[in-house]
Amino acid sequence: MEFSSKLLERAVNEMSQLPGIGKRTALRLVLHLLRQPKEQTQVLSQALTNMRNDIKFCKSCNNISDVDVCEICSNPKRNHNIICIVEDVRDVMAIENTSSFKGLYHVLGGKISPMDGIGPHDLNIESLVNKVKQGTVKELIFALSSTMEGDTTNFYIFKQIQDYNIITSTIARGISVGDELEYADEITLGRSIVNRIPFETTLKL
Q1: Across all residues in the chain, what is the average pLDDT?
Q2: How far is CA 22 from the centre of its chain?
Q3: Given this model, what pLDDT does residue 184 score?
Q4: Rounded to whole angstroms, what are the CA distances from 11 to 3, 32, 38, 49, 125?
Q5: Strand runs labelled E in the chain
Q6: What is the pTM of this model?
Q7: What domains can you pick out in the chain, each with its CATH number?
Q8: Which residues make beta-bridge pairs with 105?
Q9: Using N-to-C axis directions, what is the helix angle for 186-194 and 89-96, rounded to 10°?
Q10: What span, in angstroms and rounded, lies between the C-alpha atoms of 153 and 151?
Q11: Which residues neighbour 174 within 8 Å (Cβ) at sequence distance 6 or greater?
């Protein structure tokens, strides 16, 4: 792809680094920005800069937040005895959109995948185990994607906390095996949370 401007080429190259954005789409987006008033582009640029510089990760659940403890964790109306374990913040958003869960979350930041060089110590597992050890958590809901990596991560966490007096459950398999949680429709995902099943039973399947 030939460019008449090095500035344009650099902008396209940077835009094409985003997931799902190829060079042609990046060029279309950059040219769109060029056609907009300069002020509008500056607003977008400032919003991205502010997000990158000022955004925080909740000290309790690792969810993205504007403050040290996110609105979900600091909400006294939520059930602080139930924690739903998810892979990343997109899964929190997906479950919240169902309005079916009123507990708290714990964002792992990924799932165990030896092929990708991701082990248990690369995830936020230790802080989750510490929550269980404190004795305030009554139930853990495993809500990772139903893939081999997700199941491996579930089992690893289960082994870490199985000696504690705590209920472990997993979302019902209304979510197809191999599916990513964020792509499930809200009704199916909501029913999977409500109709969750004991995690131990999945080990016998």
Answers
A1: 88
A2: 24
A3: 61
A4: 11, 12, 15, 16, 38
A5: 56-57, 64-65, 79-86, 103-107, 139-142, 167-170, 197-198
A6: 0.77
A7: 6-54 (1.10.8.420), 64-202 (3.40.1360.10)
A8: 84
A9: 90
A10: 5
A11: 184, 188, 189, 191, 192, 195
